[in-house]
Design a protein that fits this description.
By secondary structure, this protein is an alpha+beta fold. It has two domains: about 30 residues; about 350 residues, Outer membrane efflux proteins (OEP) (Up-down Bundle). It is about 65% helix and about 10% strand. It is built from eleven helices and six strands. The strands form two sheets. It has a four-stranded antiparallel sheet with strand order 1-4-5-6, with no helix packed on it. Helix 6 runs antiparallel to helix 7.
Length: about 475
Amino acid sequence: MNKSIFKYIKIRWSLLAITLTFIVLQSCVPTKEIREENKSLPKNFDNVTVGDTLNSAHIKWKEFFNDTHLVALIDTALVNNQELNIMLQQVDIAQNEIKARKGEYLPFVGIQAGAEVEKVGRYTSQGANDANTEIRPGKEFPDPLPNYTVGAYASWELDVWNKLHNSKKAAAMEYLSTVEGKNFMVTNLIAEIADSYFELEALDNKLAILKQNLELQNNGLKIIRLQKEAAKATELGVQRLEAEVFKNNSELYNVQQEIVETENKINFLIGRSPQHIDRDSDDFIEKNVGSLNVGIPSQLLVNRPDIRRAEFELQAAKLDTKVARANFYPSFTLRAGVGLEAFSLKFITETPASLLYGIAGDMVAPLINRNAIKAEYYNANDRQLQAIFDYEKTILNAHIEVLNGMSKIDNLNKSYQQKEHQVTALTQSIELTNQLFSAARADYMEVLLTQRDALESKLQLVETKKDQLNARINLYKSLGGGWN
């Protein structure tokens, strides 16, 4: 039997061994079934015309807010807000991770240069051999022996099981997830600034109402003091009215403090030092709340950044599970190198004498004690299941937020109408009570209670108007508007 037949038999046995190894490994790979995500939603929202797909989420935020001061504040925040800028860096980091994962399935090529000096004992096998060897007639090996090397090397892991490609795709999904996370942060930032801005305008109106009420109470206090001098009123009436004046003065300072804190909150959100916030609060009560078109529930899957973020995270988790499963299979690596090597620099360019090269291929597969790989695979499955639950939870939460927002706007509109009637009635009763009190036909308690009720109703009307505006903003955000 000649040598070629031996080589043929050796190759056949090697291929058979690889095949058997693969079959054994394949049979030992664990599997775990993961259910598909449920993203079903009703066809329509309650009390919405069937098939009405007109959606206010498609309105640009600059068109949604028609207040020039508010638009300027949001514009500044989108540039200077620190949390948003931190998030933008996170997006950049995720994008760089894609490049890193992509580079893993491409060949790694490097260059290498080295120099060394070696001294071996003469009475060793290598030393004795060097001593009896002439590199040229009459010239022995140098002692000590230097060595100079220059060359290039490459290594390449063959992505047979798509492990590296799936890893790169998972990084891409994570990147898209961070982009949607940024969009969701933009939506929340815009809504928070708008909420704070309308709260600031509401506080301005509360302050104005308190000042008007104090003016009325001070006039009433003057009258009751005159009546007391004329023996038409008692000291008790004077003390009760004075106490009410002190109470409203105290509330005045509380509102002023809330204005300062709200202004500073807005300044913090837009990333600037504390300063006055420009606004026009005079027409706050007359602001038109308007109606919003909610479209159909399935549009939430496209319009809401938090749902899309959860979806991309789920896709990344699925790919990570495939990567973890591929770790059970053999990995194949090719290595190669070429260069020049000599003990003297003057010989290093003499080819082919100084030429060195090599090529090798490796197959490495886990065989015994694969507990760590199994644990990572099971963890990847668990993370995938977590991502499914998170995705379904985000969809459910979005649907509920829209329904709550629609109901809140409807009920606040009805409440506001009732409070308007209440304010009108109590304002007229103040004028009537003051006239009766001036004519000594009503006592101080009637004046006091009427003014107190009127003040509370006006403050509640302002608060309800603010709630209406905030509810409209929150519904716009719940529909997925604001980030575009």
